[in-house]
């Protein structure tokens, strides 16, 4: 009896092994494998859904207060860009901040802003204009362009991908090659992946002169040898994706 139960247990464990995915032990975190090593920048992406009747007033106070924080050397942060969504979720503002020095810089900025009377008044006024808000903390992919100020006029596309958990390294490996196909028109602005907030999120930020230019550049990529293959392999990694077309505010460093 012991022998038969031992055999059955071995058979059960063999059968289970057929259905269990083997995972190689990782030697390091995603953030260390995929992020830029030469910088310790942390990014914050904010989505603010504004009451439709308040959007103009919201933009006005943002354009008055946010550039002051951006320009003040007292704060180790930079306003990378600030936009309104044109196509996608309506009456939405999107802000992207960079913290030079990672989490300690973020903490320093937050602590200093708590003592900034003008900013506290701005937050109070802003809260009356909002329906909802959310944010994410991000790192930038090592192989993507550094987001630097650019002159306009441009429209911006923020393509957001919710990946299947466990596929971020795979995504990085494919896009490290794919980004080379998208440099001809200087359209690549920045690529990021989430650390806090909604996880396994990837954001690609692109700039185009207009919607037709966007269409032409994206179509041209399909004529490049290798692009189709990379799309074929990355699509199964995605659970959900979203595209926002955004217009920069007048004070945005990305115009």
* Tally of distinct domains: 1
Number of H/I helices: 8
Proportion of helical residues? 25-40%
Query: Structural class, from helix and strand content?
Result: alpha+beta
- Distance from N terminus to C terminus (CA atoms, Å) equals 78 Å
User: Rounded to an integer, what's the Rg over CA atoms?
Assistant: 22 Å
- Main beta sheet: 8 strands, antiparallel, barrel
What is the arithmetic mean of pLDDT? 89
CATH class (first level) name: Alpha Beta
CATH architecture: 2-Layer Sandwich
Side-by-side strand order of the widest sheet: 1-3-2-8-5-7-6-4
Judging from the principal axes of the Cα atoms, what is the shape?
A: globular
Q: What's the count of strands?
A: 8
- What quaternary form is this? single chain
Strand content: 25-35%
Order of helices and strands: HHEHEEHHEEHEEHHE
What is the name of the CATH topology? Alpha-Beta Plaits
Name the poorly predicted regions.
Answer: 20-25
Give structural attributes.
Alpha-Beta Plaits; 8 strands; alpha+beta; 8 helices; 255 residues; single chain
Kindly summarize this structure in a few lines.
With 255 residues, the protein is α+β, with helices and mostly antiparallel strands.
């Amino acid at each position: 009896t012991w022998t038969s139960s031992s055999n059955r247990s071995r058979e059960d464990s063999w059968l289970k092994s057929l259905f269990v995915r083997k995972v190689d032990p990782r030697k390091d975190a995603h953030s260390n494998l995929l992020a830029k090593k030469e910088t310790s920048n942390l990014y914050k992406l904010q989505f603010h859904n504004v009451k439709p009747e308040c959007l103009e007033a919201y933009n006005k106070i943002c354009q008055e207060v946010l550039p002051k924080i951006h320009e003040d050397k007292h704060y180790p942060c930079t306003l990378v860009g600030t936009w309104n969504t044109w196509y996608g979720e309506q009456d939405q503002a999107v802000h992207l901040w960079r913290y030079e020095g990672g989490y300690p810089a973020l903490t320093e900025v937050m602590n200093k802003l708590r003592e900034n009377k003008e900013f506290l008044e701005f937050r109070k006024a802003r809260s009356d204009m909002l329906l909802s808000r959310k944010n994410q903390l991000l790192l930038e992919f090592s192989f993507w362009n550094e987001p630097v100020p650019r002159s306009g006029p441009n429209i911006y596309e923020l393509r957001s991908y919710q990946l299947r958990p466990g596929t971020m390294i795979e995504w990085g490996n494919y896009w490290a090659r794919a980004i080379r196909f998208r440099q001809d028109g200087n359209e690549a602005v920045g690529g990021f992946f989430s650390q806090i907030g909604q996880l396994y999120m990837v954001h690609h930020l692109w700039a185009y002169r207009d919607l037709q230019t966007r269409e032409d550049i994206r179509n041209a990529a399909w004529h490049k040898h290798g692009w189709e293959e990379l799309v074929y392999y990355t699509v199964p990694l995605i659970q959900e994706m979203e595209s926002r077309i955004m217009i920069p505010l007048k004070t945005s460093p990305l115009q």
